[in-house]
Amino acid sequence: MGWSPVTRRIAITRSRLSFHYSSPIPGLVGLKLQYTSAVHQNQTTPMSTSAPRKALNLSNINPHVKKAEYAVRGAIPIKSEEYRKILAAAGTVSASGSDSASQNTTPNHNLPFNDVISANIGNPQQLGQKPLTFIRQVLSILEYPALLEHEGLFPKDVRERAKWLLEQVGSVGAYSQSQGCFGLRKSVARFIEERDGHPADPDDIFLTAGASSGVSTLLHTICASKETGVLIPIPQYPLYTATLALIDATPVPYYLDEPLSWATDVPAIRGEITKARAAGTELRAIVVINPGNPTGATLTEQNIADVISLAAEEHLVIMADEVYQTNVYQGEFHSFKKVLRNLQKESPGKYDHVELVSFHSVSKGMIGECGHRAGYFELVGFDKEVQAQIYKLVSITLCPPVIGQCLVELMINPPKKGSESYDLYNKEHNVIFGDLRERSQALHKAFGKMRGVSCQDPLGSMYLFPTITIPPKAIEAAKKQGQKPDEFYCMKVLDATGICTVPGSGFGQKEGTWHFRTTFLAPGTEWVEKLEKFHEAFMTEYEG
Amino acid sequence: MGWSPVTRRIAITRSRLSFHYSSPIPGLVGLKLQYTSAVHQNQTTPMSTSAPRKALNLSNINPHVKKAEYAVRGAIPIKSEEYRKILAAAGTVSASGSDSASQNTTPNHNLPFNDVISANIGNPQQLGQKPLTFIRQVLSILEYPALLEHEGLFPKDVRERAKWLLEQVGSVGAYSQSQGCFGLRKSVARFIEERDGHPADPDDIFLTAGASSGVSTLLHTICASKETGVLIPIPQYPLYTATLALIDATPVPYYLDEPLSWATDVPAIRGEITKARAAGTELRAIVVINPGNPTGATLTEQNIADVISLAAEEHLVIMADEVYQTNVYQGEFHSFKKVLRNLQKESPGKYDHVELVSFHSVSKGMIGECGHRAGYFELVGFDKEVQAQIYKLVSITLCPPVIGQCLVELMINPPKKGSESYDLYNKEHNVIFGDLRERSQALHKAFGKMRGVSCQDPLGSMYLFPTITIPPKAIEAAKKQGQKPDEFYCMKVLDATGICTVPGSGFGQKEGTWHFRTTFLAPGTEWVEKLEKFHEAFMTEYEG
């Protein structure tokens, strides 16, 4: 039995935070959080060396959980939440951060800002983006169908859609089929057919609790052992490496081509494949995020076709993360499914074996309903026995949230021309789209003016991912604090301005380069000016 | 590269279902589903021996996914869905099954029933249970806050609660903290304090997407390797063995004491612990489901104290699945937390190291809001470093559905006496409770009349789990069809009556005994009569 030294550590003061860094992938550094805090007073008597040991301690839990890293909600966001609490206590912002009264003239705190701006995560409604009226009207009826009895309360198309959705699901309080309600999947299939000009089958569509949940389902199915390799773009959305760490499979990073608007560099991927296979990794899948997160890239049709050809030759499942498909500000979105079907038509036989899964979500786009946790994935070309195993796997968690399933349907099937809600929907939609595009350009322009900062054109998604030059003196200072240079920079940004960003090391970047990711969701331009001012001061301090 | 023979199998006709059985635990048999069906016409050209291989096939995907079994949504429910489709096509029931027009006098189908009754799963609202008005009124405002502008639309307390919830979360469309919105967790802590008479800390509460998601989080953290063992009651809710199969850890079954109202048999557990340790299993945790699923048992305070003492001595984390805490029809619910805190007071030092996690859910109780996928767990006595790892793990899926988080708050904080909604809430609540209790007794009485059937008293939850005697001729007939006797029985029940139940082998049972689980959620008594009639015919056929 024996006494573990760990049990003695739990009496340390609350909120002592320390951050540790490690790099399982070259260039990809996550933030690992460890905190020790006082246990609740009522839970324990004072510690003594004879206290019986607990079953669980940091050294004996699942090592893969410990290994998983997720910087988007890592050390800097956690510190920003502490600042938010201080400001909320001082009465300058609300605890949820959604509704700030930031222009309080007599701040009752010592922070150099009156507001925390969460630019670390694509969370539009937290930053004041208004939900689309049509969608929320329908959802309110689904929650309380008696609202239908009030004749004049809602437009006709809202009432009709709500009635139709209720016919499909029965009640949003009832479990649906594990794969999602059939009637809603039929509607999603229709949307995909119209988007791509190729048929889609509702049986191949799985409604999910957000794209993250779908990605986890697929990676769990695909990865058979430690040796299973999945090609991951670098920089990437850290969900992928975190999930692979949990499953204990092997992420195989490939670098995106920054000077070429972060395009997918197919010859470079071939090189990685050769190296990984030589090292004994059995490659099974390739992840592509288009439009890119964190890069903001939008891939060309040719670039997508090249990836599909590679996957066909190398027998790789394509995992296409297409959650930003409507967040395209320059150029056009091409779905992997459409390009694959076109290739299959052009070259019969050559691409028929390709397996593709495409993810979509209600969290992004112009609706930004991330709090509802909903999305879908479509399986294309999968072995039906494998598909049956995926069905079984999702059935263990019963079903995705039903109100979220309905929200997916509302997202892909907006009010039709001539219906009562059409004009308002379009107006709201276009204002959001216009604001996003405008802000992306304003932020991009600001980066262009900053010393030692360069940033690719904002083509899509909700992020910019500029390269920053960090002066040697700052690199030295970071080292002293046990921080990576970009993490040091982002922490300084937060401390000085209240703007929460994520260091490039959380997503991965080429050795010796430094970046950070910021959303362009926050309204106004004041925060951009603050960022500019901070950067100038930072450079002056550390270049001097 | 080579060509796999599996790719050739995918051109077989749609819907060829076959069921295979295996038994990883003695007495526990799940239903494994394999189906092969035609791929969508547009997806493939005709198969030839030279078709390039797919990356994934049944033989190379994650073996742990294949191993996982989940009978509650297994072969029989899948067949029931097919019946439902036939009836829907014939116009006798709706596709969702929620709203049946079952008394159609001229059925346009060949089935011997006009309605499918899904008694396989605790899905109250699918079977017509009405959501509680107060709860859904508040949720409708959360989805569409502009409803607050309509003065007379909702009672004052509904409006006030909605406003308060909106202050906490900002918007239900925004991500919350990964652990759940702080203001709501404070409310949950208050509820636990009032329920148990002992303090609770909001920092120890994690809001979740249903209890299933919480169980998965905990098992993922606890299980470090294949050798990690978790004690699982038999019969059990198959989520536990399915999740352990996915994680590749070791379920260690312990049998519940059927003649003693399915009590937890602590001496028997000690025997299992000794055996498991001798076999090299490192035991870490014990799962207790109270009130029981599928057993319907409600544990006594003494029984709970005995389990806690065992866990304290053996250094086991207690995983208390308490989702049916308000579904108690005889006796009283005692939470593990309350009993633990009482023990800690009575015997200082002896129980301080005990680690307990308690799960709760909005899916059951009198609200039955399973489609919303929401719940919480409370950690008690956990090492704070381990707790930080759990926080990191849940942060990878971002946050639980926010509307569901609000629903948790509404569940644990119903309208107060004197408020406008109080009377209606209580009336609706009590009708549901009374109906459940009444139906549990009626069904129990019916089982008492059936030949060779015996059933423990219905104390709690939503299920009865009778023992059935299956005549040797029926066992023989089952064997011929490659089915377990209880699976054969349940399939016959479905084919003859449209009532979908789950065979005891899906939950585990003592060798040579046979059971099935049925909910008592379906309204009316007609289906119970059908069941009686079926049983009599079955016995006559196979006893003769």
UniProtKB/TrEMBL annotation, chains A, B:
Domain Aminotransferase class I/classII large: 154-526
UniProt cross-references to Pfam families, sorted A to Z: Aminotran_1_2
Keywords for this protein: Aminotransferase, Pyridoxal phosphate, Transferase
GO molecular function annotations of the record: pyridoxal phosphate binding; transaminase activity
Alphabetical list of InterPro entries matching this protein: ALAT1/2-like (IPR045088), Aminotransferase_I/II_large (IPR004839), PyrdxlP-dep_Trfase (IPR015424), PyrdxlP-dep_Trfase_major (IPR015421), PyrdxlP-dep_Trfase_small (IPR015422)
Subunit: Homodimer.
Family indicated by similarity: Belongs to the class-I pyridoxal-phosphate-dependent aminotransferase family. Alanine aminotransferase subfamily.
Record-given protein name: Glutamate pyruvate transaminase
Biological classification of the source: Eukaryota, Fungi, Dikarya, Ascomycota, Pezizomycotina
